[in-house]
Specification:
Blueprint: H1 6-19, E1 33-40, H2 49-65, E2 74-81, H3 85-97, E3 103-106, H4 110-116, H5 120-123, E4 126-129, E5 146-148, H6 153-167, E6 171-177, H7 180-195, E7 199-206, H8 214-220, E8 226-230, H9 233-245, E9 254-257, H10 266-269, E10 277-279, H11 289-302, H12 308-327, H13 332-339, E11 343-346, E12 349-353, E13 360-361, E14 364-371, E15 377-385, H14 387-390
Parallel strand pairs: 1-2, 1-3, 3-4, 4-5, 6-7, 6-8, 8-9, 9-10
Antiparallel strand pairs: 10-14, 11-12, 12-13, 14-15
Length: 402
């Protein structure tokens, strides 16, 4: 397959905009379209802050190289905070009032998104979530100014369902970080297991910032058929190292991860996560010319291949750009209306932002950590399913549309 060069890509973007009757003026001296990026600078999630900024800047640079939107360039405004919901609200307020952004994305834990949602309309900004996975935003806290690109927990559990069934594992233990998404995912996974005729034997929640998992490992050493791990960042690295030291993983037929054995942590994890099967919705090898061009451009800018977290931020920018172009401007109320039901060509393929609940209906899959030819670690994709096959129907109680 022959992939387009950057020049060909820009020409194609210009032609598309010209066809739509929209100006294409790279570098035009117009007010930039400001996008706010929330990052966390303390605690276990701070290890991801620089990655989030790298991914967002690469996405903005790539879109600007394609002409931006409406003849205007995108500009990233970064605001770090300490990692609490209250701090996230303060940071988002600064982005909206001082940074003059019309859209916010970035490191938004489920608890942060839940805290921000009631304030979005007052701040007159959109939040396009690339991070939170808790199920609540599918149902009771749908909001006109909230959109989500990241994969919700119910979609991940649906993705895991066939894999769990085929594995033959009937009894399960689970350990998760003690926060909103951790609890919603644990509940959904437990329902999945019991629905397949199995049983949850142990469910543990470790506080964020845990460094010693000895007591949890001792309890889980009694074993079961399968173990599900949803422990992230530096916490996840500590857990993986200690689990291997004490032979915990050897006591299970199957180890599943959700945000545990992720691509951007493989080097830090090393062999501690070899064999873990992790929910993974994107890899650089995903087919399609758009994705291939994105990977090439990202590598040129950052001297490494993009991770799935980078891809989610790229999709946020692609979706937002499409909404701005359709709306003919950046006013959040107009962009919000433009995004509802909009089909967008992204690195995930042509996907739809569902009008009823403001969720991007995107592919999702499962991949196993395996030994690479060079002796390191890599992912082997086990399954990838299209979004319409695995996303639940929009909940009737969801009130996302204004």
């Amino acid at each position: 397959m022959t992939h387009p060069t950057r020049r060909q890509f820009n020409v194609a973007a210009a032609a598309a905009l010209a066809t739509a009757g929209l100006p294409f003026q790279v570098g035009a001296q117009q007010e930039p379209i400001r996008i706010g990026l929330l990052t966390i600078d303390s605690g276990p999630f701070s290890t991801y802050a620089s990655l989030a900024e790298t991914g967002a800047r690469a996405a903005v640079d790539i879109l600007n190289a394609e002409g931006g939107a409406l003849g205007r360039r995108f500009e990233l405004v970064v605001q770090a905070h300490s990692g609490t919901p209250a701090a996230a609200i303060q940071a988002a307020t600064r982005l909206a009032q001082q940074g003059k952004v019309s859209m916010i994305t970035g490191q938004t834990l489920g608890s942060h998104s839940l805290a921000l949602i009631p304030r979005l309309e007052q701040l007159n900004v959109l939040l396009i979530d690339s991070y939170a996975t808790t199920a609540d935003m599918l149902t009771r806290v749908c909001s006109p100014n909230y959109f989500r690109v990241s994969v919700p927990d119910p979609v991940t559990t649906r993705m895991m369902q066939d894999y769990v069934r085929s594995s033959g594992a009937k009894t399960w233990n689970l350990i998760s970080a003690d926060y909103a998404s951790g609890h919603s995912f644990a509940k959904a996974f437990g329902e999945l297991v019991t629905g397949l005729g199995g049983a949850m034997q142990q469910t543990h929640f470790s506080p964020l910032g845990t460094t010693d998992f000895g007591s949890y490992i001792t309890q889980m050493s009694r074993g079961a058929d399968g173990l599900l791990v949803q422990v992230f960042m530096s916490d996840g690295q500590s857990f993986a190292k200690q689990a291997r030291q004490f032979g915990l993983f050897d006591r299970y037929k199957l180890i599943l991860g959700n945000g545990f054995a992720t691509d951007f942590q493989l080097e830090a994890h090393g062999d501690n996560v070899l064999g873990v099967v992790n929910a993974l919705s994107w890899t650089p090898e995903l087919p399609g010319a758009r994705n291939a061009t994105y990977v090439k451009e990202f590598v040129l800018r950052n001297k490494r291949r993009p991770f799935y977290t980078d891809s989610d931020l790229m999709a946020v920018m692609e979706v937002f750009r499409a909404g701005v172009v359709k709306a003919g401007g950046t006013e959040p109320a107009r962009v919000r209306k433009a995004l509802e039901g909009l089909k967008v060509d992204t690195i995930f393929g042509n996907v739809e932002m569902r009008a009823a609940d403001h969720h991007l209906i995107r592919p999702h899959g499962m991949a196993q950590v395996v030994r690479a030819r060079n002796g390191g670690l890599t992912f082997e994709q086990k399954v990838m399913k299209p979004g319409p096959e695995i996303y639940p129907a929009a909940a009737p109680e969801c009130k996302a549309q204004a």
